[in-house]
Amino acid sequence: MTRIEMKTPLVEMDGDEMTRIIWRLIKDELICPFVDLKAEYYDLGLENRDATDDQVTVEAAEATKRLGVAVKCATITPNAARVEEYGLKQMWKSPNGTIRAILDGTVFRAPIVVKGIDPYVRTWTKPITLARHAYGDVYKNAEMRIPGAGTVELVYTPADGGEEQRVLVHEYQDAGVAQGMHNLDASIEGFARASLSYALDTKQDIWFACKDTISKTYDHRFKDIFEEVYESEFRAQFEEAGIEYFYTLIDDAVARVMRSEGGFIWACKNYDGDVMSDMVSSAFGSLAMMTSVLVSPHGYWEYEAAHGTVQRHYYKHLEGQKTSTNSVATIFAWSGALRKRGELDGLDELVAFADKLEQATVETIEAGEMTGDLVAITSNPNARKLDTEDFIKAVASRISL
Questions:
Q1: What is the 3-state secondary structure (H, E, C) of the chain?
Q2: Least C-beta-crowded within 10 Å: which of 195, 202, 245, 391?
Q3: Is 203 left (phi over 0), alpha (psi -120 to 50) or beta?
């Protein structure tokens, strides 16, 4: 069989644990038999990040800026236990945080909807897309352990030698902790513009939510910039399209989302988007059934699965036991990256293959062939549990060029 030729490579970022095993299976069974894959490979596995002092993560992000499209496997963000388990030099920061800080942009996450996998929230009849700001906040913070009594302040020193500004954070009477976060007007504007543009392109209402009543400077800046971008660039187009931009507080948004029917975009700050996308994906069926793409205002796209490395299954795999790990989101990360590469390079065959790969994946599940997490929640009476490799092979059997 003649494989589809690619013009330009994409950036391939390998990852950790069970998703690294799945990554290889997907390439061997679903991609390389059909596509002459061209990719610049970067190993973002924890051991290699440690060996390179995390420079491999920076190199992968810079390659994405150069080539425009990347696909990323799930990776470990180490805590103290992981530092000990892997014998790391230090507690390296989130690779996703590093990549997003370099690329900037907005992460769009949407559930993969299939027949027989019904949302836990009975009112949800349409997908809810999360638009997550992908820069700054706690993912690019500075923090310290406060050993005892003393003062912590925020200090701004103007580069032009102007008057210094100081704000008291806290007068400590005893030990504690402190952190500082930042964001940039330009990045927030890009977030607002990308979110509103996506809403206009998909003809969906969009909600933005933060906590400006408590964070009267930081969060309020997000609210103001969203409103300014909407009023100056999008209001007329939204009214013509019959869609709405809506702002509310984050706690009110959560309550409204739970009572809604779905079918809209929910724009959130970085941390809120991280948490709420997991809630939405899980409520729609499974964390492994959610697409995730970083869209940079500079024209870069990075596709990944929204979930983690499936540590528990990996330990079973190491013991030689069969696992039934859901690979759908990782498959859709590959299909999304290949589709975008095809669109940018004018390769209709590659775009069509990405569509067929996604269709084959959905058809496999709807035929009753699925992994254990979906068997546990499906309403399909003919469902049967497949192991990790057999599910991927079942998808492969449904692909034809």
A1: CCCEECCCCEEEEECCHHHHHHHHHHHHHHHCCCEECCEEEEECCHHHHHHCCCHHHHHHHHHHHHHCEEEECCCCCCCHHHHHHHCCCCCCCCHHHHHHHHHCCEEEEEECCCCCCCCCCCCCCCCCEEEEECCCHHHHCEEEEECCCEEEEEEECCCCCCCCEEEEEEEECCCEEEEECCCCHHHHHHHHHHHHHHHHHHCCEEEEEECCCCCCCHHHHHHHHHHHHHHHHHHHHHHHHCCCEEEEEHHHHHHHHHHCCCCEEEEECHHHHHHHHHHHHHHCCCCCCEEEEEECCCCCEEEEECCCCCHHHHHHHHCCCCCCCCCHHHHHHHHHHHHHHHHHHCCHHHHHHHHHHHHHHHHHHHCCEECHHHHCCCCCCCCEECCHHHHHHHHHCCCCC
A2: 202
A3: left
Residue type, 332: F
Question: How far apart, in Å, do the first and last CA atoms of the chain sit?
Answer: 9
pLDDT of residue 1: 65
Enter the tokens of residue 44: 């973002």
Tell me the average pLDDT across 102-115: 89
180-222 per-position pLDDT tens digit: 999 999 999 999 999 999 899 889 999 999 999 999 999 999 9
Residues 6+ positions from 308 with CB-CB distance below 8 Å: 19, 74, 76, 287
Percent of the chain with pLDDT over 90: 86
The answer to whether 401 and 3 are in contact (CB under 8 A) is: no
**Alpha-carbon distance 293 to 303, whole Å?**
4
Q: Strand 129-133 and strand 106-111: pairing?
A: antiparallel
Two tokens, residue 192: 């607002």
